[in-house]
Amino acid sequence: MQIIHSVNEMQKKMLTLGKENMIGFVATMGYFHEGHISLMKESVKDNDITVTSIFVNPLQFGENEDLDRYPRDLENDRKKAEAAGVDFLFIPQADDMYPSKMTLEIIAKERTNVMCGKSRPGHFEGVATVLIKLFHIVRPDKTYFGIKDAQQAAVVEALIKDLNFPIELITLPIVREADGLAKSSRNVNLNEQERAEAIWLKKALEHGRKIVVDGELNPAKMVKEATKIIHDKTSGSVDYVEVLSYPELKPVTENDNSIIIAAAVNFNQARLIDNLIFDREGKLLR
Ligand code: AMP
Questions:
Q1: How do residues 183-227 score in pLDDT, each as one tens digit?
Q2: What is the fold of 185-278?
């Protein structure tokens, strides 16, 4: 596995390699866990060459967010990526990715006025901007994203379509701990008590889904009851619980057969997100 820091070097390399090889790409912020590894392994299986990037993108963090305490462990990441079969680990510096003030600005107009987009203004603009740049640098044929960040996957799907990137988006299921907590780099920032409480996110979402399984697709009731569970069972503060169509992220109508229940909860040092995607009968789709 080769490690590349320079944007220029990475882009030049991929211009050549991309001519004769299928390129798979996994964009990450590092501190790898099995969720990241599942994306890399799928890419290694599907492609001739897999590129994984590690870049904690300042543009997608708000002023009072956790950019400074976002966990980092490059040596461990290197070992894990190599073991997963990654060919190139691309680790650019912020001033190489953003050498000067940008002249253009990306605005996300759909799919971002709900869920994380509402509580993290500018977040998906930052995500879209860095992904457009990374797609131009790496020039992948396929790119792999986790459905853990379901809203991000919905935005990436729109971005690829809107801007005619010749890239296939592949989304993979949420990898969870044995007790159901979605794996996240941010889980290390939970204290012992919060870690024990955090299992209630998934349980609360499952409760919401059960309302559908029991025959009542009632978003207001699902939101209310799931919110109450998280409120009662954890010390975290509920940022949102929402039930929407997926991937459009609009209020659920009679015609929708792909529905997401998603939550974000703020603990002291970590903001956790989770979701379930299911059909009108409550059957899981992911
Ligand atoms: P991040 O490093 O958090 O930006 O995540 C990089 C990629 O890994 C994104 O596509 C995430 O959706 C994906 N990912 C993060 N956590 C998980 C998980 N628990 N299961 C599956 N994919 C994940």
A1: 999 999 999 999 999 999 999 999 999 999 999 999 999 999 999
A2: Pantoate--beta-alanine Ligase; Chain: A,domain 2 (3.30.1300)
Provide CATH code, domain 2-172.
3.40.50.620
For the stretch 96-153, pLDDT in tens is: 999 999 999 999 999 999 999 999 999 999 999 999 999 999 999 999 999 999 999 9
- Residue nearest (by alpha carbon) to ligand 1 atom 18: 35
The domain ranges of the chain are 2-172, 185-278
* 36 among known catalytic residues: yes
DSSP state of 148: G
Which of 36, 86, 156, 176 has most ligand 1 atoms within 8 Å of its beta carbon, as the pocket-test mutant?
36
Hey, which of 31, 67, 145 would you mutate to test ligand 1's pocket, going by the most ligand atoms within 8 Å of its Cβ?
145
Please tell me the residue having the least CA distance from ligand 1 atom 6: 28
| Other CB atoms within 10 A of residue 94 CB | 12
